[in-house]
Task: structure prediction
Amino acid sequence: MTEEQFNILTRPLHTRMYASALTLLRDEDAAADCVQDTLLHLWELRGRLGEIEKPEAYCLTAVRRTALDALRRKGRMPVSAVDVAEIDLPGATDPHAETVAREDLRLVGKLLDELAPRQRTVVEMSAIRGLDNAEICEATGISDENVRVLLSRGKSRLRSLFRLHSSK
Result:
């Protein structure tokens, strides 16, 4: 595949690739880096791109996988003291109640590490990043039914772990 053919294939997809990465990463710079990394990888594979039946789908899948890899490398998005301090706790006018709520949030952030990787990813995307099931499906490639099951089981496991740790 020549440079011109590669550009004809990838340029129209750039916006969709960026949107897909941004949906997952929630960081414009990280999404741009992800797209750049994906394009570099695709350039290295350009000899085989002509053989792929649906190269557009291949490119979009590649950027999604690169974004997921970036999330894995980065590790779980911790609920840090700064993040917890910035969360608006509705109805928390009592300073003691607010402190307890923030400690509970920190505990939940730590307990997320005890979930299976796919459960953790889906729960974080839903609860922390605020994505709906359709966005999670698009970002991860997991079917809607599996997202619902992972989310339900993940939340159930978190509740059990929270009860266990908060009773100590």
Summary: The two ends are 62 Å apart (CA to CA). The CA atoms of residues 104 and 166 lie 8 Å apart. The chain has two domains: 3-74, 81-166. The mean pLDDT is 80.
